[in-house]
Amino acid sequence: MTVAFKDYYKTLNVARDATQDEIQRSYRKLARKYHPDLNKDSGAEEKFKEINEAYEVLRDPAKREKYDQLGSGWRQDQEFQPPPGWEFNFDFGSRRQGGPETFFWTSEPGGFSDFFETLFGGDFGEARHEPAAGRSYTVSRPGADHEATLRISLEDAFRGGIKTITLQTAGPASDGRISPAEKRYDVKIPPGILPGQKIRLSGQGAKGTGGGASGHLYLKVEIAPHPRFRLAGRDLYITLPVTPWEAALGTHVTIPTLAGPLTLMVPPGTPSGKKLRLKAKGMPNPKGPPGDLYAVVQIEIPKNLLPQERQLFQELSRVSTFNPRT
I need a labelling partner for 171 at 20 to 30 A (CA). Which of 31, 71, 147, 187 fits? Predict the structure, then answer.
């Protein structure tokens, strides 16, 4: 059987060596652009189906491996005929990770091109029939995992707790069209969670088929910038402004921490830029020691001197032998 070749990399506008993250980002961008509920232009729906078919192949390592064996010499819409015995070379039944990402689209059975069906077969619905025995049986497949971003404050990351969030999703309505929807989740945030870590909501991904388990929803944590603290690993940094005489003579100052105010000693002769460490006052660590808090000294110079202040500085300049340039 001769069919038109589909260049799935060209469809998703990615290179043949693209990573899974690059493929997913490109897919999401194109899916939003051509979604039939958002784009009423002629041909948008067909383009949308092509995008989802390409993603169905390139998101699955097994299908992508099989597709890549065709080589890079084929052009879009060029006549293609698979080599003899092709259909016996691979088995996807045990490695399938669920249907296309349902945040944008759920492909109906039979919605793929002839090229796709030629390469991978047509058993992507919930039920198949066994002609020899005349019996039907159900194919059980787990649902796909989904991922979203959870942006929280530094205080929430430090203390943990329950945070209620609402996520925008999309799914088929009763008339078969894709419609937007909202879903609320009560998310348990563990104390000391860091940017890039993920929280798993079990069973909140795509539904499985044929009785298969639902996928999971993974929330990738982002921590919003803080007006006072800077996070580096599990350590926290805060700027500590001091006067010239405090830096020279030493002093005790009260500084804020995420667990409450603390008193810190500034040793005599502390230079600007010196990091004063408060051990174990950084981010908590459920699997080990917590981070530290560093107060970075910044010597501030008064801009508007009172007459007496000016006299004292002038007197200091006459009697002092200190020269920072020697």
Answer: 187
